[in-house]
Every structure is written in structure tokens, then in C-alpha cells.
Write a structure and sequence with these properties.
Belongs to the SELO family. With 481 residues, the protein is of the alpha+beta class. It contains 16 helices and 16 strands. The chain is globular and about 65 Å long.
Length: 481
């Protein structure tokens, strides 16, 4: 049973609501891997029970004699650095828990938190979220996952009319910083404590052993978030909208909107054309998530101060300094994880004082020469060398390999295990979307299969591993979904 259900008598927090049906639903994409996680029997990569189509379309709330109590939750948050007030599940409706996973239908209709929105998601954004959720999982990134996309010919208006879809999202929990901010901002101390206790009981049991469990919880969320964003940076992944209401309390990648994997490396790349100031550009992602963790600490301040006064005998400014010192662990964890990941990408099995300079010079050179990020590291891991413009850096790198004293075969094998050949590039997703808009879903299935094995050379055209052709290099992605 999901933690939210005890709050269903408080309409300021949770709304019990049924999804709004869509006409004539059809399968667009389905993940047998996620179905297996949820214990859903499949055949030919679709559920054996045909009723799942209507369940995941939002057209019914039961499978056989199993009924689901569907609901949506309130949260608040900071958007682009400014307090936005109450937000909430404006188009996501919970089915509840299946095999220990929370399941949401994104695009299943209006809720009490939809504000002026229609509660729908469009086919375009649903396919992108479906494919990237699974791609990130198989790249080893902590993430929500996606079971399915169900489409319909029903039209909704965005910049132009688009067909609607429902994406089924799956995670151990969809709790986000915005939930804690909502309770803290509105001084809902009872609900805040219940939620923090739930997190410790179900997701951070190690915090039970700390004399200050809430502070330990804040620290663990911070560390998980630091590891997650370090993984993003190592893969050249840009999220695009790192608002606090899009930031998981479990250190998961949530809410795939205007994301993008870097093609030509630019350290200040902005993947969201609505981000005019570059707040969520590639190089700022670690800093912004640290800022979001500070927002979490601020929302938790009352119970944190009470705990520190009771256990440590400190309060006021001293308690705040204590909390700040805990938050400094984020930067230490991020730097440590980032360095470890990039050493692995370069096949370095030992540490050397010169590594930081080597890594910094590499990123500066990739930026200056606008080198394809994924392709560079993959070619390096296959022993294919580097562009001639990078020969100076490459000579230094080879000298560093001599210090490492690892066999070439072993090094290349280890590098290929961490440097993917295939990522969800925007032009690949766009091609699948354009075919799907013509009712051809074969490319969605094909891309999913490729992305489920991103580190292995596959019997597919080499174009799936390459950057976009020049005419597709500037695909622009917005928040519209």
C-alpha cells in the first residue's frame, strides 16, 4: 500500500480520482523487462491478458478481481529558481503499488492539481519518456522506468493539434523534494514527519541506526543525488528541467521532458529551448541539484532543528551550521564519484595525481573541437584513436597508460563495459516519433531493443551509433508535452 493513502481524507494533499478514458486505445510501446519486474505475464512482448491495454489507457481500474484505488498527490516546488507554490500531479494518476513498485499513468486526464492544463500527454513526449527511461536503466543510471505507451487518435492542442497518449511510469517511489517543500511551506508538521518516517522505514532503513535519523536521511538523499548526477555527467546526459518538483527523494532520474544526450560536446550545452538563462545547462547540473538539496533541507528545517536540540543539545545558528556541514558531503561525494567514473571511461585502474589535469584538458579539448561525446569515448574503448586535433592530449594519455601497467585487451574490455555505443540521441527518437505518428510503431520497438543492450556491438546499421546528420543537428526540445 502506498504511503499516500493515509492522507486521502485531506483533499489538500491527495485526491481520489479515476482516470479519464481515451477512445480506441492501441499499443505504441511495451517493455517486457518492466512487465517482468511487475510480475505481468507476457507473450510476444505484450501482456497475455488483453485487459492491460484498457488498464494502462486509463479506461478501467481493475484487472480481473484486482481493483486499483487511483489517486493524485499535491506537491509544491521551485521552478527555474523561483518559488512556484502548489503544483502536484497535474496529469499523473497513481494506480497504486504492484510488486513493491509505484505505478503511474501519465497523461490519464485532469486532476485537482492540473491548474489550467488538460491532464493529457502527447504521443511525442510519451515515446521520448518511455524510451529514455529504459535507456537510462540499461546504462546503469538510477531512474524511474516505463512499462508502456498507449496511444489514441484523440487530439489535444499544444503548439498545434497532436494525438494523445498515456505513458505508464514505474518507480519504487515517486516522492520528490516538492512533496517535502509542500508540507514544510504549509507547516504541515504531522504530514511531514509521517513522510520522513515512511522514507526511512521503506527506503532508507540504515537511518534508523543513527542518533539523528532525519539528518541521516537528508545526508543519504544528498549522497544518492550526487552519485546520480555524476553518472549523468559521465554519459553526457542533460535533463533540461531540474526544478525541485522534478527531483526525486530516492536519487532517481524523474520526469523526462526536454532531455538530451550530448552530440557535439559543449560544456555549457542547453537542451531546453525554454531555458533562456542556461540555468539547467550541462555543466550546471551538479550545482543545481545541490541547490535543490538545500531547498529540501530548508523544508525539513523544523524537524531537523528539533532533532538536533534533543540529541545534540544544539539549536539556532549552531544547528544550522551543523546541517550545512552535512550538506557539504554532497560536493565530496560528487567529486569522488565523477573522478571514479571518468577514470573508468579512460580505462585507468589506478589513481594518479595527474588525472585531474588529464580529465580537465580532455573536456576542454572536446569542447573546443566540438567532438561527439559518446562516439569519442566508444572509439577510444575500441582502440580507434582520436581526431588528429586531439593528438597532443592523446600523447599525454598514452604516457598515463604506461604508469597504469594494465594489458591493452583488459583495459579496452573494461572501457567498453562503461562507454556505451548506443544512447537515445534526439534524432533517433524523432525518427521513431514521426513513424509512430503514421501508426508505424516498429521503430519504437527497434530502438527499445537496441537501448536495452547499449554497450554491445549489435547487428544494426552503424547509423544508430552515430551523431545526427547536419540537417538534424539542431532539433530543439521544449517543455511542452
Amino acid at each position: 500500500m502506498a504511503f499516500h493513502l493515509p492522507f486521502t481524507d485531506n483533499l489538500a494533499l491527495v485526491q481520489s480520482i479515476s482516470p479519464t478514458p481515451i477512445p480506441n486505445p492501441y499499443w505504441v510501446g511495451f517493455s517486457a523487462s518492466v512487465a517482468n519486474l511487475l510480475g505481468i505475464p507476457t507473450t510476444d512482448n505484450l501482456p497475455i491478458n488483453p485487459d492491460y491495454l484498457n488498464l494502462l489507457a486509463g479506461n478501467q481500474s481493475h484487472i480481473g478481481d484486482q481493483s486499483y484505488k487511483t489517486y493524485a498527490t499535491a506537491y509544491s516546488g521551485h521552478q527555474f529558481g523561483s518559488w512556484a507554490g502548489q503544483l502536484g500531479d497535474g496529469r499523473a494518476i497513481y494506480l497504486g503499488d504492484i510488486h513493491g513498485q509505484e505505478v503511474q499513468l501519465k497523461g490519464a486526464g485532469q486532476t485537482a492539481y492540473s491548474r489550467m492544463g488538460d491532464g493529457r500527454a502527447v504521443l511525442r513526449s510519451s515515446i521520448r519518456e518511455f524510451l529514455c527511461s529504459e535507456a537510462m536503466h540499461f546504462l546503469g543510471v538510477p531512474t524511474s522506468r516505463a512499462l508502456a505507451v498507449v496511444g489514441s487518435d484523440m487530439l489535444v492542442m499544444r503548439e498545434s493539434p497532436e494525438t494523445t497518449a498515456v505513458c505508464t511510469r514505474v518507480a519504487p517511489s515517486f516522492l520528490r523534494i516538492g512533496h517535502i517543500e509542500h508540507y514544510g511551506h504549509n507547516q504541515m508538521w504531522h504530514e511531514l514527519s509521517l513522510t520522513l518516517d515512511y522514507l526511512i522505514e521503506h527506503h532508507y532503513p540504515e537511518c534508523h541506526h543513527s542518533p539523528t535519523p532525519y539528518l541521516a536521511l537528508l545526508d543519504q538523499i544528498s549522497l544518492k543525488t550526487a552519485r546520480m548526477v555524476a553518472k549523468w555527467q559521465s554519459l553526457g546526459f542533460c535533463h533540461g528541467v531540474l526544478n525541485t518538483d522534478n527531483t526525486s527523494l530516492l536519487g532517481l532520474t524523474l520526469d523526462y521532458g526536454p532531455f538530451g544526450f550530448l552530440d557535439q560536446f559543449q560544456v555549457d550545452h542547453i537542451c531546453n529551448h525554454s531555458d533562456h538563462g542556461g540555468r539547467y545547462s550541462y555543466h550546471r547540473q551538479p550545482e543545481i541539484l545541490h541547490w535543490n538539496i538545500y531547498c529540501l533541507a530548508s523544508a525539513m528545517l523544523q524537524p531537523l532543528q528539533q532533532e538536533l536540540k534533543r540529541v545534540r543539545g544544539i539549536d539556532g545558528d549552531e544547528a544550522i551550521e551543523y546541517i550545512k556541514n552535512t550538506l557539504n558531503n554532497y560536493n565530496k561525494e560528487y567529486v569522488k564519484t565523477w573522478q571514479t567514473l571518468f577514470r573508468k571511461k579512460l580505462g585507468l585502474s589506478t589513481e594518479s595525481e595527474q588525472d585531474i589535469t588529464l580529465l580537465e584538458e580532455l573536456l576542454q579539448t572536446l569542447h573546443r573541437e566540438k567532438v561527439d561525446f559518446t562516439l569519442f569515448f566508444r572509439n577510444l574503448s575500441e582502440g580507434l584513436g582520436v581526431p588528429t586535433s586531439m593528438n597532443s592530449w592523446y600523447d599525454t594519455y598514452k604516457e598515463r597508460l604506461d604508469i597504469d601497467k594494465q594489458s591493452t585487451d583488459r583495459r579496452l574490455e573494461s572501457m567498453q563495459a562503461v562507454n556505451p555505443k548506443y544512447v537515445l540521441r534526439n534524432h533517433l527518437a524523432q525518427h521513431a516519433i514521426e513513424l509512430a505518428q503514421k501508426k508505424d510503431f516498429s521503430e519504437v520497438s527497434r530502438l527499445l531493443k537496441i537501448l536495452e543492450d547499449p554497450f554491445t556491438n549489435q547487428a544494426v546499421p552503424e547509423s544508430y551509433a552515430l551523431g545526427p546528420p547536419p540537417e538534424l543537428a539542431a532539433i530543439s526540445i521544449s517543455c511542452s508535452s
